[in-house]
Amino acid sequence: MGRYLLRRLLQLVPVFIGTTFLIYWLVWAVPGDPFAGKCGERRCPDQYIAFMTEKYHLDQNVFVQYGNYMKNLLQGDFGQTFSQRDIGDIIATAYPNTLKLALVALVIEAVIGLGAGVLTGLRRNGFLDNLVLISTLFLIALPVFVVGFVLQWLLGVQWQIIKPTVSSEMRWSELIVPGFVLGSASVAYIARVARTSIAENRRADYVRTAIAKGLPMRRVVGVHLLRNSLIPVVTLLGTDLGALMGGAIVTEGIFGINGIGRAVYRAIVTKESATVVGIVVVLVLVYLVMNLVVDLLYAALDPRIRYE
Amino acid sequence: MRVSKRATSAIALSAAAALVATGCSSGDGDGDAAASKDGAITVHGVQPENPLVPSNTTETGGGKVVDWLWTGLVEYPNDGGAPRNALAESIDTKDSKVFTIKIKKGTKFHDGTEVKSKNFVDAWNWAAYSPNGAQNGSFFADIQGFDQTYTSDPDGPDGPQKAPAPKADKLSGLKVVDEQTFEVTLAAPTAVFPTKLGYSAFMPLPDVFFTQKPEEFGKKPIGNGPVKFVSWEDNVVIKLTRFDDYNLRDKMKIKDVDVKLYQDETAAYADLLANNLDFMEVVPTSALAGDKWKADLGDRGLSTVTPSTALISFPIYDKRFQNPKLRRAISLAINRQDISDKIFFGTRKPADSWANPLTPGAKPGNCTACKFDVATAKTLLAEAGGFTGEMVFYYNADSSHKGWMDAVAQQVKTNLGINARAEGVPTFAVFRQAVNAHTMKGPYRAAWQQDYPDVENWVNPLYVTGGSSNDGLYSNPEVDALAKQASSAPSLEASHEAFSKAVEKVDQDVPSIPIYFYGQQSGHSEKIKKLELNNVGEVDITSVEL
């Protein structure tokens, strides 16, 4: 177990370097001069461009720029944006917001998805099963921005139950609707995966044995069946946290949340490699760590799985 | 000029004088003084591109906040009329070359220090010193000694050579006389100089600015305007509050102003509809279709005209577009009324003059090329020898320009038989890069909002050889000579008269074609009982009553 963990952690290093360089290079290769659109319909004064080019070493080639960037990064310095804000500050304010939103989405997803999955998996082909099948299909088919705008307009503007956008305090209660929007497609997938998994294991030998032993149904389902059926669901949920954080860009835009999606979008448009990489570096770490956590959870859920 | 990246959201001025928001409970439209006194409003904003230093702010996001935080020597009245003294007690000149500027006594910066003449002189010297890289540095080009403090890179910013260090770090034309007086000597007589003084580049800076890094100052700016800075949370909110020691004309009636920084204008619009946002300058284009905004907002909506013009510029460096007859033919083939009615639902007015008619000194209806006259257009095209190949009209696709640019191309195609189409360039940055580098391969979209209200600002930057926004490289020695003569005229009246002659020459050459004058559709919450828009269409926060 310890060796396995160490090996996995060491694997993170090349993945980390590879992804950061690729992203740095990609943003660098995006066409467009960062200062071409910065002064409106008038070209920026050469003096200003020269000043900025010198300040940000933009006259160096991409490898040197990346090297400089990594050197500073390892010292904990994320650098500055072209508007001279510290990228470290942007990350420090945007990440907690997105993480909060993603966690709310994840909880909603787990509760609704798993609940619907268990119920329908146990009673297949009933009315409830069909209802869930159709409604999940509906959710999968709807793009996130449609769900987002419709809920915002209906709940925020028409009925005024919620505020249309999230305030800067980011209260948990304000995040329920955006969280649902963000997690809506995943709810459907979780429900379907859970349903199939439960339905399959329902006919497994150990379930029959448990029932034959005379265990109460609650215990059969809650302990034996659910635990064994959770592996695919946990995989989905674990990797989804990263996807939710990276994919929050649309939801954040609709509900005016100051998260990483917005920050990355701005940075790509203004060609700020340093900002994009800074944010994505942390996102890459989230993905890698979540993958590791999921793998470790397998072992906890199923004792037959062991890591050497 | 301040046109935001989106370029649709920039713009504005209410010619319709003071706009009183009606439809409120109190019949006379006046606010409740008690509610106003400690009142707070939240207005729409976008994250400023740069730290808030006036001479380094050129875009609308930061420009709006800078305008509120500072009061300049002169101010532009909300009705778009001629500028009047604000911080200046008097601006005297005999020859439009040497100006003696006296400032009012006893006004303060937000840190409590008094505004003195040296605060102006130091601020201007800082901006005009090219190694400081101020975006508005070139605004000081009129002043004597500018060529000594502001040097250019001999081979452009991309070339290997660096700009030589300036010979001087102070403008020789600026002289402090006493604490309230300073003298400005220009390189040549310039009648419009006092008008320029209300632009943000000319704001005074407190002593503390010169003791810290500009970007540090810009994160916690100290101005001298009716509101002072409280805090700025990136991408979230900029908080401002009333400056109680303010003693000039435009005092605040309410207390707090939060500028909520939105990424997405539809999110802001939803907030506006739910009364969660108190003012939005420009409702999203999507709300204009079918007059949806009118139905949504009712009497909370405002519609104004603004002193900004949308143009299509010709790349005159491209041989195919060097014949003025061809350019005129294209201009005459465009039905501007149709575009205004069908694409913009009447929210934009068809252009019929070169300078926006709301600008002092501009002559309305002086664009003879702006008529819709297919017969003449066809004759002119034939005289010009026709046009072979494809004519592509370019625009930046990250903002809503597709509709009207497609319409323009289609009209040219139908009316002149030219193989024309419109093509979007993905982002404003890529688009401007090609425009700046003079590599456009067809006519392209442009827009112009005046920096300061005078016709001069519609001629010198756009149509004079080497003008700062003469991107199409149009050059006519006659226009240059007339504009030069107009700029150095002894009085504004004489200057305006001379500029109208220059414009007549421009009208013959058609270096670009005005398409429409911008309008602005804004909205406010039920809470606001009274508000005015300033000369660029931003809300005048000192006029707001609750």
Automatic annotation (TrEMBL), chain A:
Localization terms from the record: Cell membrane
Segments forming domain ABC transmembrane type-1: 95-298
SUPFAM superfamilies linked: MetI-like
First-listed, main subcellular location of the protein, grouped into a coarse class: membrane
Record key words, sorted: Cell membrane, Membrane, Transmembrane, Transmembrane helix, Transport
Residues spanning the membrane: 12-30, 101-119, 131-155, 175-194, 276-301
Name of the protein this chain belongs to: ABC transporter permease
Entry superkingdom: Bacteria
Membrane topology: Multi-pass membrane protein
A Pfam family that the UniProt record links to this protein: BPD_transp_1_N
The keyword Membrane appears for this protein: yes
PANTHER family the record matches: DIPEPTIDE TRANSPORT SYSTEM PERMEASE PROTEIN DPPB-RELATED (PTHR43163), DIPEPTIDE-TRANSPORT INTEGRAL MEMBRANE PROTEIN ABC TRANSPORTER DPPB-RELATED (PTHR43163:SF7)
Gene3D superfamilies: MetI-like
Record-stated family: Belongs to the binding-protein-dependent transport system permease family.
From TrEMBL, chain B:
Alphabetical list of Pfam families matching this protein: SBP_bac_5 (PF00496)
SUPFAM superfamilies (UniProt xref): Periplasmic binding protein-like II (SSF53850)
Domain of life: Bacteria
Signal peptide: 1-20
Record carries keyword Kinase: no
Chain spans, region Disordered: 149-169
PROSITE patterns: PROKAR_LIPOPROTEIN
Keywords: Signal
Occurrences of domain Solute-binding protein family (ranges): 83-469
PANTHER family: ABC TRANSPORTER SUBSTRATE-BINDING PROTEIN, PERIPLASMIC BINDING COMPONENT OF ABC TRANSPORTER
Protein name: ABC transporter substrate-binding protein
